[in-house]
Amino acid sequence: MPKESQLMASLPQQTSFTDEAWVEVIRKMDEAYADLIGYQVQVEEQNTALEEARSFFDSVQAAMSDALVACDHEGRIQQVNRAFEELSGSAADSVVGLSLVSLCCEDSQPRLQQALQQLRQQPVRDLEISLQGQKGPVPLALNCSARFNRRGRLIGIVVAGRPLGELQRAFKELHQAHAELKLAQERLVQAEKMASLGRLVAGVAHELNNPISFIYGNMHALQRYSRRLIKYFDAVHAGQDRQSLMALREDLRLDKLIADLDSLVEGTLEGAGRVRDIVDDLRQFSSTQKTSKAGFDLIHTLSSALHWITKESPAQLKVITDLPEQLQAYGHSGQVHQVIVNLLQNAVDALQDQSQPQLFIRAGQTEDKVWLQITDNGPGVPEDQLPRLFDPFFTTKPVGQGTGLGLAISYGIVQEQGGSLTLENCSQLELAPVASGIQASLYLPRSTQAEEKNDG
Ligand SMILES: Nc1ncnc2c1ncn2[C@@H]1O[C@H](COP(=O)(O)OP(=O)(O)OP(=O)(O)O)[C@@H](O)[C@H]1O
Ligand SMILES: [Mg+2]
């Protein structure tokens, strides 16, 4: 608004007022009045905007569950929000003007004081202090920031305090949820193992049936033979003459019996050996981490796993191998067996709808590692799913046929033994034996004599 002196200064310089001069005065006064009205409207608009901003700010502040304190540059409280009032048990009016530090418990005061002094250089993050509340200390995690004016001078401090009780409770709940999840995962891992054991047991029962039934048959034959032999020896002891002994020998068909004996015993021993091998295989599969690491033949472990898996697979499955006689790896053979069983099972599962299913198995060694590659000519995996194959519970198999833990567990086992396990689409490889399908590559430490001696 123009001042009166400015108004007078802008009047024409005359010694006496003429009519025109009065008109000019009135015009200037009109102008000044119109300006006044304009300023008035502007001020009112600004006031309304200010009011709205203030009520918005107040409602945000009131809705916060964190305490908010605005202080001047010396740390004296200028304003607090409702959460601060509730936590401290003091009304805003009673704390305005007090130093924030003085409202803290004694043991917190030096820390807060020091942090506020350094605030110009660095903001304070998660400083744990206790506020003196009406009902006792209130633990808070503070974040403090400095407020500067346009010229960069410190004009105040803004402090936000999160009640630690709430954080601690949230942390406890998180901890408990984590523990429950871990337990559920352990149970699932166990369930996965039991499920694969279940699959194997069906094969094992079938496999055991064969040798046991022919051992059984042989033993029955031996039992019958022994009765006939006893009868003949009784006759010998009774002193029967040579002629009747010859007749008895003929009658009892002893010559055929004697010719049979060797093959009966051999067959029985072979059957018993087969049973022992099956039990050995099973023991390998069910062995746990408790066994110590040792040198073992990867080819033997592979053969045993392959034997079980291919037994249940479609008859037209063609297994093409390129393997050395033996390959000394170092680790837990039982666990490696479990890994290979899963890789083979996955490959066989992927080949289910293939008209000419093929499995390529190669193995070899480098300076310090042994390797095994299992490749199938199945459909492979969409590229975007590849990174998820090792995720626990990732499965594309129907419910009840796969838990999605096989590869996750295998990965853990191989890592723990200092090896590596990768799955790639053959379509992305230059040297794969087939154009489609998956190539699984397993690397394990090579056994050295020193390691084996240490184990011994
Ligand atoms: N050779 C493969 N060809 C195609 N897909 C594969 C192959 N190997 C693994 N996968 C994919 O990876 C997924 C995860 O395999 P993983 O062995 O972890 O679990 P799963 O076989 O589904 O179940 P589980 O092993 O627990 O019985 C499979 O569901 C399948 O989609
Ligand atoms: Mg699997």
What does this entry look like structurally?
By secondary structure, the protein is of the alpha+beta class. The chain has 4 domains: 4-60, no CATH class; 65-167, Beta-Lactamase; 170-281, no CATH class; 289-455, Heat Shock Protein 90. It contains 12 helices and 12 strands. A 5-stranded antiparallel beta sheet has the order 2-1-5-4-3. The chain has a 5-stranded mixed beta sheet with strand order 7-9-10-12-11. Strands 6-8 form a two-stranded antiparallel sheet. Strand 1 (67-72) and strand 2 form a beta hairpin. Helix 6 packs antiparallel against helix 8, helix 8 packs across helix 10 and helix 10 runs antiparallel to helix 11. The model is unreliable at 1-5 (pLDDT under 50). The structure holds adenosine-5'-triphosphate and magnesium ion (MG). Adenosine-5'-triphosphate binds at residues 192, 342, 346-347, 350, 376, 378, 381, 389, 394-397, 402-408, 438.
> What is the CATH-assigned architecture of the largest domain?
2-Layer Sandwich
Q: How much of the residues is beta strand, in percent?
A: 15-25%
Overall morphology? elongated
The CATH class of the largest domain turns out to be Alpha Beta
Question: What is the assigned CATH homologous superfamily of the largest domain?
Answer: Histidine kinase-like ATPase, C-terminal domain
- Report the biggest beta sheet as strand number plus sense, adding barrel if it closes: 5 strands, antiparallel
Helical stretch tally:
12
Break the fold down into its secondary structure elements and pairings.
Elements: H1 4-9, H2 19-63, E1 67-72, E2 77-80, H3 82-88, H4 92-95, H5 109-117, E3 124-133, E4 136-148, E5 154-163, H6 164-237, H7 242-251, H8 254-286, E6 294-297, H9 298-311, E7 318-322, E8 328-331, H10 333-350, E9 358-365, E10 369-376, H11 406-416, E11 420-425, E12 438-445, H12 449-455
Parallel strand pairs: 7-9
Antiparallel strand pairs: 1-2, 1-5, 3-4, 4-5, 6-8, 9-10, 10-12, 11-12
The structure holds adenosine-5'-triphosphate and magnesium ion.
